Amino acid sequence: MATTSPPRRTGIFAVRDVGSLAAEAHVEGQQLKRAVGTWQLTAMGVGAIIGTGIFVVIGEGAAIAGPAVILSFVLAAVACVFSALSYAELASSIPISGSAYTYTYATMGELVAWIIGWDLILEYGVSVAAIAVGWGGNFNAFLDTTFGVAIPEALATSPEDGGVFNLPAVIIVLAITLLLVRGVTESARVNMVMVVVKLAVLLFFIAIAFANFGTQNFTDFAPSGADGVTAAAAIIFFAYIGFDAVSCGSEEARNPKKDLPYAIVGSLVICTIFYVLTAIGAIGIARPDQLAASDAPLAAALDEGAGIGWAASILSLGAVVAITSVVLVILYGQTRIFFAMCRDGLLPQGLARVSPRYGTPARLTIGLGLLISVLAALVPLSEIVKLVNIGTLFAFVLVNIGVIVLRRTKPDMPRPYRVPWSPVLPILGILFAVYLMTDLPLSTWIRFVVWLGAGVVIYFAYGYRHSKLRAGESETVGGTPSS
């Protein structure tokens, strides 16, 4: 007896079928190469998480919480882990490029997916530009500390900071762009080397700190009480952001059902261990006020606490390498999210073509690299970079909601990894993210709403009319109806 399928939803909240998403990943000309494994994906997560955060934010946290900044690192990790588990479930169940954008398309519909995709474009793009600017500053500091030379300020800073053109920021963005065009395998290998270097630098700091460890700085452990620990955790939380970029590699993982959950949760666990050990070591050799007073708190701890001034060069090198790997992974995530949106027709489909030579969306990668290099060189970023925080937390909220929704709408869908105690843990992830969002200033919220509003206008002007889902193209791939 013939059965009729339910009518296709064509409204702005139309949901992409998971089978259709999976089938579309095999369309000729839009198929990415599955070339990376668990360890490479885990290194991508570590590469995205460990950047300037641990080299700088520990001082800001110590100024608020005192020695209890150690607990702040633990609390921030706990706040992240709930969202990490939700990312792991969706990444293993829907191993398609696009991260939170794709998961939202499969659970809450096209308009919400567009909004989160538009949000992620801002989050990743501004992040790369701002991190590239930070890379230029750290690279100049490394040259000055190690060799006594420095790039002229006019060529090393943007007009916002009194310069003319931020040349180092442009160079690092373009170099990473070319590497990403070459292929995901080559990019993963380079990232692995950089991750090993920066973990070695942190191990160097931890070893020196514990060799000179003392307990005198732990007196008056929590001068501001639990409120200080929580307030510091809200700042430190952003040193953990980056594990979500692993999910952007869903379509290029060799065994996504196994690789992605291990990589997402594993990278968060590795970084938490290093962060906590680094915080304990720093407090063991330097007072919280010494850490708070320096722009390079780890170098200050070794110099003032352990009397090892020459270590500043090693830590400067670690910071440069750490930031380079962050630029690589975040720009990679940006290209894959944009790629997924183009492939769905919400942005120009021509940009979703994959290079037959390199197996990457080369045209799209080059275009984004050029645009971000201009942002890094010339555009004032001090205010709009604050949108990165709220954008990331907004994505966390929707991913946790996505787990709950998909458990109800697709209860029998294969889930290689399942969040335990759902919906309790996803709800906790939502509450933590919302709590941290409420702590952000009103000006950030206003800019965020304006950006999303502009995105909605673009959606109805272009995306709504060109959506492959609305045209029915995404329901039949290669002439075969999707599951």
UniProtKB/TrEMBL annotation:
It is a multi-pass membrane protein. It is found in: Membrane. The keyword Phosphoprotein does not apply. The keyword Transmembrane helix applies. The chain crosses the membrane at residues 39-58, 64-90, 111-135, 163-181, 193-211, 231-250, 262-286, 306-333, 362-381, 387-407, 419-438, 444-462. One of its GO terms (molecular function) is amino acid transmembrane transporter activity. Keywords: Membrane, Transmembrane, Transmembrane helix. It holds the Pfam family AA_permease_2. GO terms for cellular component: membrane. This is Amino acid transporter. It comes from Spirilliplanes yamanashiensis.
